[in-house]
Structures are given as C-alpha cells and as structure tokens.
Amino acid sequence: MHNTFVPARRRMIQTSLATVGFLTFSGLGRAMRASSTLPPKYSGFLSGGLIDLRYPFSLPELPYASNAFAPGIDTITMEIHHGKHHAGYVRKLNAALEGEPSLQSKTLGELLADLDAVPDSIRIAVRNNGGGHANHSLYWETMRPGGSQPLGQLAADIKRDFGSLEELRAQLKTAASGQFGSGWAWLVADPSGSLVVLSTANQDSPLMEGQHPLFGIDVWEHAYYLNYQNRRGDYVDAFLDIADWAAVSANYENLFKLN
C-alpha cells in the first residue's frame, strides 16, 4: 500500500518527467555515484555508458569483467547476453534508422516516448530494438558485485511506498516470476510521485508509458537459461543480490536535481 507522499515532490517529479525528459544512466555513471549532480546540458535522456544517445548507436562497454558475478550470473551468459543479444539490438536499431535523417537527430528516449511519430514501416523495429538497447543499457549499470544498499531519497521513498527493501524485493520477484513469456520487471518513478513495481512484455520500456525506469530485471530466457533452466525465481534472487541500489539512488536523485 502506498502512503501519502509530499505534494511538492509529486509536482517536482511530474515537472521533471515533462520538461527534462527521461533519465537513466550515462557514461558518467561512475562519476554520478560519487556526485549525483549533473550539469544542465545533460538534462535529456541518458542511458548506460553513453550520454544523449543518438544515431548511430553503439554497444556500451560493461563496467566490470564478464565473470564478475559468477557463479550466480555465469560468464558465458554474460558474454552472450551483452555481446550477442544487446549488440544485436544496437545493430538492428541502426539499420532501421539508416534512411530516416529526421529521426537520427532524436535521442533514444524521445523515440521511445513518441513511437507514433515513427513511420509504420520501422515502428516495430524501433520499438523492439530501441527498447532492447535502452533496457539493457540500464540493466548493466545497476549491477555490482556484492550489491549495495539504497541511499538518501530513494531509501526514504522505498520505506514510504513499500515499507522496506525486503518488501520491494518481494514485489519485484513476484512481477518477474509472473511475467508470462519474455519481458522485464521494473521499479519505476511514476509521474504521480510514487515508486511503482510493474512488468512489461518483450523489450517494451516504461518510457513508452511516460514512466521513469530506475531498475529492471530481464526475464528473457537468454538472461538466465544456461544456468537456471526453468528456475526463473532462483535467477531473480541471484540478480537481486547484486542489485546496485546505490547507483539507482544516484539516478533517482537526479529527478529532483535536474529540475
């Protein structure tokens, strides 16, 4: 159950989402963790490993070794997931936009937030591959060996909206385990000002619904099947144990500091 939240903060999140776009992680990700203030020019959509993502898109480097999470998230899965699947989304997204100069100037966040403006002939490709690029860029940036704890405003609002981190973890696991087929479970900042757990199918991003993704669990089989087969719940537990909540906290703080 959600508690009553401060109206001023609600208005601030609504304004932030409306006026500065959608913020996920940038190439300044590690610097953001030390200081969560970004210069005003970075107020557009930012995503894992790159600032202001625009065509031609490229695959971000992992901020850790591919064996950093073994055995919970095994090395081969990491290498295939990043080097094959994520790379494939980037390649296909670039191919879809190759002949669309009017779209090439838009950030990835702008494309995903307004898919109706994308021509019918490439809309599905942009939705699937653009969503895949955005989702995975955030995914890599919110993992840390050993995990970390929420800080500051995020810690306070997790307690406000879920009661505890343990309850948030339980709701994320329920959403991830209950997602039929391929998709994602998310913690998002809703324009109402509350933190919300939800799931999306395939590579759909919360950006498509005007919500701010803070943390996502990939439940496509390529994320876990080599190691866990049909034991999706065990994979979700292992992933939650390496969640970098401190990094998520820095991202969340920027919803307020960028306004």
What does this structure look like?
Helices cover 49% and strands 8% of the residues. It has 259 residues and is mainly alpha-helical. It folds into 2 domains: 7-141, Fe,Mn superoxide dismutase (SOD) domain (Helix Hairpins, Orthogonal Bundle); 152-246, minor pseudopilin epsh fold. Strands 2-1-3 form a 3-stranded antiparallel beta sheet. A hairpin with a 5-residue loop joins strand 1 and strand 2. The longest helix has 23 residues, at 75-97. It is globular.
Identify the CATH homologous superfamily of the largest domain: Fe,Mn superoxide dismutase (SOD) domain
Helix content: 40-55%
**Continuous helix count:** 11
CATH architecture of the largest domain: Orthogonal Bundle
- Mean model confidence by pLDDT: 83
Distance between the termini: 28 Å
CATH class of the largest domain: Mainly Alpha
Beta-strand residue percentage = 5-15%
The tally of beta strands, per DSSP, is 3
Report the major sheet: 3 strands, antiparallel
- Gyration radius, in Å: 17 Å
Characteristic key phrases:
49% helix, minor pseudopilin epsh fold, disordered N terminus, 2 domains, 11 helices, Helix Hairpins, 259 residues, mainly alpha, three-stranded antiparallel sheet
Topology record:
Blueprint: H1 7-19, H2 29-34, H3 75-97, H4 101-104, H5 108-113, H6 120-141, H7 152-162, H8 165-178, E1 183-189, E2 195-201, E3 212-218, H9 225-228, H10 232-241, H11 245-257
Helix pairs in contact: 3-6, 7-11, 8-10
